[in-house]
From TrEMBL:
One of the protein's GO biological processes: prolyl-tRNA aminoacylation
Family assignment from sequence similarity: Belongs to the class-II aminoacyl-tRNA synthetase family. ProS type 1 subfamily.
Protein name per UniProt: Proline--tRNA ligase
Compartment list: Cytoplasm
Keywords: Aminoacyl-tRNA synthetase, ATP-binding, Cytoplasm, Ligase, Nucleotide-binding, Protein biosynthesis
InterPro entries assigned: aa-tRNA-synt_IIb, aa-tRNA-synth_II, aa-tRNA-synth_II/BPL/LPL, Anticodon-bd, Anticodon-bd_dom_sf, Pro-tRNA-ligase_IIa, Pro-tRNA-synth_IIa_bac-type, Pro-tRNA-Synthase_IIa_type1
Gene this chain is encoded by: proS
EC number: 6.1.1.15
Length: 568
């Protein structure tokens, strides 16, 4: 273990956080001297912050070792050719730091390392007998965030654990996925961050099956949908719900074209025609790669573009611009509809449209609608799917309990990539029949520095931080009130000598006022605080847990038992 004298420890605290710091974790890490900004989204980790970072990394190393995954390290500087081969060089977009060397060769700073690991495997793994195998690294990554904010929560340079598994069979991949999920849960538990594993979108990572580890927090940028029983949890991007609306069956009425001037929203149209939004079908034109897709949904619901992207299996899905809309359909916004929509390569509808009767749809003419339109009689749909954004309070799809929305921070993400990269990059092996097959991959990541912010967000006190014991920068904060008091010095040094072989101790030996020392101690957030003060001659000290409002006096003879009980 380690001992440190605070008079020699670099910890530049601030009375007030900078005015541009919004997240509580950002404010406290700046005030406590854990980090300092170098430029937007890029931070230095000062001694206090680096101690927390290294302890978190050590936990990760231990848990990965338990599932027999060895550690290695890859370069930060990568050639563009691998990313061009996988197709992600363009797809990653402006978030990638791209550069050229003196010979004009395109390169990048690694935002993640699927391609690099796949290339290593392609060159060195040739037989099913070499699998399953997995590798990991803990390394700095680079992403050119458009709006870096909230301190370590959204930066342009950050530390990440990224692991990659390689299997010969789907059964091997499933086991690797379970092993990594178990290791991640143990890591988060030991680091003191509460998480929900949730159904998630794979995004630019590829693959279809993924789970996010979301840490509920007030400053979170994500929203997760959960039920009370804990049997359902999903990122809002992927959340499903049960639609409870049922339209009463009725006789089909005659299709009628009506003028609807200036009704370019569902609200305006509903008011003008005196019909509820549930009797209106919205029609929105999307461009999916090079295809024109008309998407239908009931008027009271919103299209979830992430779900739509999965259904269409397209690299890029975007809503048509007003100019494109007018050129393709002949109508401005609000007038587009599915009747005689010959311009559409495909018409896809949300499940809410399936059982509607006599609805309002656009007439493909600005300021005109059709009333009493009916599916199959007046318009056709090529495919139905769940395309809507779930709403809070709707029944979940498992136990039909009301969905609850919570803001949260994504701290980890695991993916079953399958053969997404290995087929493209030629990472084949010979199976037991001597036949070439693509290696089956998994990818597993923890945002290490982001996780530290999540821990702080979840462990705020009135005046500082209550660090979980395994990642606290120091396990014990020993504070001496008067440095010119011989009894206090003698007792404090004897406590330091007795406990430092077992625990990390920060000994505040500064000639500062008590108020300064206690304020700094709140920012250090050690699980145990020991104050040597006016009763030192009687061998009595004050002890305080980080979350306690008040300290308690105990004789030094009971100190070891108290510390052991608190810290183990």
């Amino acid at each position: 273990m380690e001992k440190m004298r605070q008079s020699q420890f670099f910890m530049p605290t601030l009375k007030e956080a900078p005015s541009d710091a919004v997240a509580e974790s950002h404010k406290l890490m700046l005030r406590g001297g854990y980090i300092r900004q170098v430029t937007a989204g890029v931070y230095s980790y000062l001694p206090l912050g680096y101690r927390v970072l290294r302890k978190a990394e050590k936990i990760m190393e231990e848990e990965m070792e338990k599932i027999n995954v060895p550690e290695m390290i890859m370069p930060h500087f990568l050639p563009a050719t691998m990313w061009q081969e996988s197709g992600r060089y363009k797809k990653y977009g402006d978030e990638m730091f791209k550069l050229k060397d003196r010979h004009g060769r395109e390169s990048l700073l690694g935002p993640t390392h699927e391609e690099t690991f796949t290339e290593i495997i392609a060159k060195n793994l040739k037989s099913y007998k070499q699998m399953p195998i997995a590798l990991y690294q803990i390394q700095t990554k680079f992403r050119d965030e458009n709006r870096p904010r909230f301190g370590l929560l959204r930066g342009r340079e950050f530390v990440m654990l990224d692991a990659y598994s390689f299997a010969a069979t789907r059964e091997q991949l499933d086991q690797q996925f379970e092993d990594e999920a178990r290791a991640f849960k143990a890591i988060f538990d030991r680091c003191g961050v509460k998480v929900h594993p949730v159904i998630a979108d794979s995004g630019t990572m590829g693959g279809k099956n993924s789970t996010e580890f979301q840490a509920p927090a007030a400053i979170g940028e994500d929203i997760i949908a959960t039920n009370q029983s804990g049997t359902y949890a999903a990122n809002l991007e992927m959340a499903k719900s049960i639609d409870t609306f049922k339209q009463e069956p009725e006789a089909l009425k005659e299709l009628t074209k009506v003028a609807t001037p200036n009704c370019d929203s569902i609200e305006k149209l509903s008011e003008f025609l005196k019909v509820p939004a549930t009797r209106i079908v919205k029609s929105i034109l999307f461009i999916a790669d090079d295809k024109k897709v008309l998407v239908l949904i009931r008027g009271d619901k919103q299209i979830n573009e992430v779900k739509l992207g999965h259904v269409l299996d397209a690299d890029e899905v975007r809503e048509a611009t007003p100019e494109e809309l007018l050129e393709i359909t002949g109508s401005a916004k609000g007038g587009v509809g599915p009747i005689d929509a010959k311009y559409a390569d495909k018409i896809i509808a949300d499940e809410t449209v399936k059982d509607l009767y006599n609805v309002v749809v656009g007439a493909n003419e600005t300021d005109f609608q059709f009333t009493n339109a009916n599916l199959d009689r007046d318009f056709k749909v090529d495919e139905f799917a769940d395309l809507r954004t779930a709403n809070e309070g709707e029944p979940d799809p498992v136990d039909h309990e009301p969905l609850k929305f919570t803001t949260s921070i994504e701290v980890g993400h695991i993916f079953k990539l399958g053969t997404y990269y290995t087929e493209t990059m030629g990472a084949d092996f010979l199976d037991n029949n001597g036949k070439a097959q693509p290696v089956i991959m998994g990818s597993y990541g923890i945002g290490v520095t982001r996780m530290l912010s999540a821990v702080v967000e979840q462990h705020l006190t009135n005046n500082g931080i209550q660090w979980p014991k395994e990642i606290a920068p120091f396990s014990i904060h020993l504070i001496q009130m008067k440095m010119n008091d011989e009894d206090q010095t003698k007792l404090a040094e004897s406590i330091e000598h007795a406990l430092s072989p077992i625990y990390d101790i920060l000994y505040d030996d500064r000639k500062e006022r008590p108020g300064v020392k206690f304020n700094d101690a709140d920012l250090v957030g050690a699980p145990v605080r020991i104050t040597v003060g006016r009763k030192a001659a009687e061998n009595i000290v004050e002890v305080k847990r980080a979350g306690d409002d008040k300290s308690t006096e105990i004789p030094v003879s009971q100190l070891v038992n108290f510390v052991t009980e608190e810290l183990g």
